[in-house]
Amino acid sequence: MANHKSAVKRVKQNEQRRTLNKYQAKSTRNAIKTLRNTSDKAAAEELYPKITAMLDKLAKNKVVHKNKAANLKSKLAKHVNSL
User: Fold this and answer.
1) Could you read off the pLDDT of 4-56 as tens digits, one per residue?
2) Which end of the chain has a smaller Cβ tally under 10 Å, C or N?
3) What's the pTM value of the predicted model, to 2 decimals?
4) 5-82: which CATH topology?
């Protein structure tokens, strides 16, 4: 266990950040799944900007790598345009 007050605080902060990152990443993955499973172009065009914003936020906070976020956005754009 931690020996200093600052180390105890750091453990608490890391746990809070981990749970928030996990929640945001999981909700983004679920949103991506709904977009991929949608066959309605209007609904897909409405969802796409929201999902790209989510991916940008995850990349900014280094939850996912920026290249992975870019690849996902590109694939989703192809999917939306193909509908």
Assistant:
1) 999 999 999 999 999 999 999 999 999 999 999 999 999 999 999 999 999 99
2) N
3) 0.85
4) Methane Monooxygenase Hydroxylase; Chain G, domain 1 (1.20.58)
